[in-house]
Amino acid sequence: MRATMPATDSAPLSSIGRSIRSLRRDQNQIHSFPTPHDATDAFQRRAADLLTALLPDANADADADILSLAWTTRLLDSFLLCLEEFRALLFGSAAALAAGPPLDRLVADFFDRAVKALDLCNAVRDGLDLVRQWRKHLAIAAAVLAPAAAAAAPHAPLGEAQIRRARKALTDLTILMLDDREGGVVGQRNRSFGRAAAAAAAPSSKQGHHRRSSSGGSSGSGSSSGLRSLSWSVSRAWSAARQLQAIGGGLSAPRPHDNAATGGLASAVYTMGAVLFIVAFALVAAIPCQDRGLHAHFSVPRNFPWSAPFAALYDHILEESKKKDRKNSCGLLREIHQIELCSRHLMEVTDAAEFPLPDHKDAEVREATKDLVRVCQSLKDGLDPLERQVRELFHRIVRTRTEILDCLSKPHATE
């Protein structure tokens, strides 16, 4: 924004005149916003720092492992920080530029892609609820075995009834995970973040019927006719893979002419679009979603400050998806892998068990039970914070889009 104080037409020869002119220059510098190039360069460096902080570190704590619940929560934190700084950029010195071509078109394109991420938020929420249902079966097995496993073997031997009850819970869990791996239930678990607010604003018996039907669907029961999604939730034909392609498809680096004409702001919009894609890519990879797939190919030029960490994250997620023991998983989330490993191990060590358990077998079961309890606790601690962040992501995208488009629709006089 230019300073509003007018420049003098003449050039006084007196020292008083020179002092006044110098004072005005100082005031202009104090009250001016940074130039667009300075602001956009700072924004891109900030994006680079946030993406770099998400890269796997061999010395980091286990909770910081890539594609874990804690890491995915930090991923969303990073996106929300980027979005807030992007919002401040467009509301600041860029407001006048963003209201006109070519930046208005680029900003509108970004928000069209961001709106596509709203369905993804709903699908991820459904997936997190699904993992929560899996945890209930783990918790049953843990509740049966953990009290005895925590005690010394001679005083509290693991009995046949306990083993059978735990195996029943783990068998039910395995069936659920196999069903969801093939898309049997995920596509039916549709709930929208906006549903509660919409129902409160305009309650009706029809909405109440849909709400009850969705609740029934979340537990995996109920007739298929009662599992129809509302218009603001993902439909049965919705595909996470196709949505991911829509978010990243056709997103290209700005032309040098457009970037120069906008003072670098075109690059900032492109940066925000790329960050949106890598976040969506990681969520689809990690969380059970309807028609998951990582077939959306995306590459960025190397001349951006954030290009290297972006490419490293993208490649790491792809490598995880190609691992033999992760290839057919419901999701790459580390805790999902732990569910599969510890439940499978416990089933193996209790298979065809004789009672009373031999000492070595009893020790194996107790150790497997401790692993199961750790996974249950990890899920309990991590699922709710991540769901809150997904909810915040949904609402922040809606609010930011509304505020910015409203701002850009107003005339911006050149001061």
TrEMBL record:
GO cellular component, one term: membrane
Major site of localization recorded for this protein: membrane
Keyword Ubl conjugation: no
Bias-annotated ranges (Low complexity): 197-206
Spans traversing the lipid bilayer: 265-287
A UniProt-annotated Pfam family: ROH1-like
Compartment list: Membrane
Organism superkingdom: Eukaryota
Keyword annotations of the record: Membrane, Transmembrane, Transmembrane helix
Record-linked InterPro entries: ROH1-like
Protein name: Uncharacterized protein
